[in-house]
Amino acid sequence: MVDAHAHLTACAGFGGDMRCGTPFAPGGIRAALAPCDSHIGIRPGSLLEAIIGNTDPLSPDASGWPAFSAWPRHNTLLHEQAYYQGIERAWRAGLRVVNTLLVSNRVITELYDAGRPCDEMDEIRAQARFIVDMQDYIDSLHGGPGQGWFRIARTPADIRSIAAQGKLAVVLGTENSELFGGRAIGDVARITTSDVDAGLDEMVALGICNLFPVHKFDNAFGGVRFDTGLNGAAVNVGNLLSTGHWWEVEAAVDGPPDNHQPLADDSIARLLSGGHSEIPAGAVAPVYPAGPIRNVRGLTDLGRYLIEGMMRRGMIINVDHMSAKTATAVLDIAEAAGYAGVMSAHSWSDRSVLERTLALGGFAAGYANAACCQGGNRPTYVAEWQANRCGASGSALAGYGFGSDVNGFGPQAAPRLDAATHPLPYPFTAPNGTRFDRMRMGERTFDLNTDGVAQYGLYADWYADVVQVAGDAGPQLQQDMLNGAEAFVAMWEAARAWN
């Protein structure tokens, strides 16, 4: 199986002090998962986590090791959720590839750290070193260099060699908002084509194979797909700080839309524009029309240069987070060239974009939500897989992945609402045939039925749960998931062979 979207190095991003805990530490689990003062009580870490994860900042319990009564939970988003022992358990259940996205966001980091300067690319470099340190640490526990089960893969051939040894291939990518420093202020790019070439060459040298050209904010490469709900309102403020403008929209009448915004009122939007239809909604203030909308910004000339440069280097293009206009232009380029190295890894694209990605021979993975029956309007993993399998390009689905977004600003799967009456029975058998009982870490025993995916080791349980919940479609889902790593590596091989 393949986790196509994970953040195993996030503790070394965002200034290095936004998150509590690390996936490994020389002092072992006691040091790696100890409580952090900055996340106890009314402190910056606990307040930010309350906003993005709906946690309780007033909880008096801040325990990490050994009780783990306060965290990790499925929504403790600023506490480490991927300690290496959990990753090992998921690997033993059949995980064979994890796409580790080195992550940063200058605006969020500088706001959190009261203006301390942040260079996103320096943070990417630091995380590229951190993942090597993590590999070396795991090697040290298994006899020395090259002996561990956690192996960094720089090429598709590396993945195949690692898989042949039954080990976990760790692929590297980036997900940041100002790739290569690529801000655009007043729609004027702060970097040049020379900066793009130098940046791409550095990424290849670091073993990074896939990039997000656009993430969270508009930038020098293109427009972004909006966050929605209250998160959208907050991220829109970040867009203003990064670019000097609010998100600006137009009616989506002849193509895929972007996400709705919480401040939507046709009358107010017209009033703010002075009745001038040529002024994009959001240009004056962040109030938008009520119907289907999309970002007015698409792929820029510099964005086209970046995409073509990635193709020449056989890199994988992440289309998630691109605005509808940006993604459409990128897919036009890839289709005209017959380039298969395109991926939607965690359900952040319009379905029409996903259909075109699959038709190209690209790769798809669904956000690792609960198997079914979760609150709110989040799509369930099984339902989304079924929609993709039954779509116009479903026949091109050679394998299917999941995107955990672990250690990102997104929750892990909550407990199913029907788990009390239809639980995952313990012990269970994972799709690869391995038998598991409940995972114990420190003094805490985890149960998917009550905890959801509280930490990465629960993905072993989640794999079995989604297959069980799929019912009669379970065998097909299991086959697609077990073919996920093969489909991913075949797509990357096709990208590298293109030139």
Structural overview:
The strands form five sheets. Strands 1, 2, 3, 4, 7, 10, 11, 12 and 13 form a nine-stranded parallel β-sheet that branches. A two-stranded antiparallel sheet has the order 5-6. Strands 8-9 form a two-stranded antiparallel sheet. With 499 residues, it is of the alpha/beta class. It has a domain at 229-295. The longest helix has 21 residues, at 120-140. The chain has helices spanning 29-32, 44-53, 84-92, 106-112, 120-140, 156-164, 193-205, 229-243, 266-272, 301-312, 324-337, 351-359, 381-389, 448-451, 459-469, 474-482, 484-497; strands at 2-6, 97-104, 150-152, 168-176, 184-185, 188-189, 208-211, 249-251, 293-295, 316-318, 342-344, 363-367, 401-403, 428-429, 435-436, 439-441, 444-446. This is Peptidase M19. It comes from Nocardia stercoris. InterPro entries: Metal_Hydrolase.
List keywords for this structure.
single chain; nine-stranded parallel β-sheet; alpha/beta; 17 helices; 499 residues
Ordered list of secondary-structure elements with their pairings:
Blueprint: E1 2-6, H1 29-32, H2 44-53, H3 84-92, E2 97-104, H4 106-112, H5 120-140, E3 150-152, H6 156-164, E4 168-176, E5 184-185, E6 188-189, H7 193-205, E7 208-211, H8 229-243, E8 249-251, H9 266-272, E9 293-295, H10 301-312, E10 316-318, H11 324-337, E11 342-344, H12 351-359, E12 363-367, H13 381-389, E13 401-403, E14 428-429, E15 435-436, E16 439-441, E17 444-446, H14 448-451, H15 459-469, H16 474-482, H17 484-497
Parallel strand pairs: 1-2, 2-4, 3-4, 4-7, 7-10, 10-11, 11-12, 12-13
Antiparallel strand pairs: 5-6, 8-9, 14-15, 16-17
Helix pairs in contact: 6-17, 7-10, 15-16
